């Protein structure tokens, strides 16, 4: 329902390129609810846990190096169908295949510099929010809820 959560992260290149506000703005404007947000420099061990399913890929070492090249902004967003809609808002993994109007389709070019992360399923959304925030997300109701949901 409306309590669905997804893990959205502005990657180091997104932070350096000044796109933190732009990415937050798109999720806020859509009507999603920010329930967790922090800037941090994750350890390699933490990133290896986050990307555990990609461990066997040839690009894995490069991915971990890039992801630990600078601070990231980790966020938990909540709302109806936020996982699937968040992925649609991010665009395809390879930015050259991302539609204009998506975050990746508007702001980047290379797959290894695709500026943002979004959970790929409801299960991984829960798992990743837990991995990055533990229990420390905020539980509050938006006073605009009845204007966003019927
Ligand atoms: P996504 O981030 O869209 O969920 P993913 O989980 O398959 O994509 O991969 C995680 C990240 O790894 C992705 O954002 C960029 C990098 N990556 C994926 N496939 C890659 C490839 N073929 N070459 C280089 N980097 C890749
Ligand atoms: Mg993924």
UniProtKB/TrEMBL annotation:
GO terms for molecular function: ATP binding; nucleoside diphosphate kinase activity. SUPFAM superfamilies: Nucleoside diphosphate kinase, NDK (SSF54919). Its EC number is 2.7.4.6. Keywords: ATP-binding, Kinase, Nucleotide-binding, Transferase. It is an enzyme of class 2 (transferase). It catalyses: a 2'-deoxyribonucleoside 5'-diphosphate + ATP = a 2'-deoxyribonucleoside 5'-triphosphate + ADP. Residues 3-139 form the Nucleoside diphosphate kinase-like domain. Coiled coil: none annotated. This is Nucleoside diphosphate kinase.
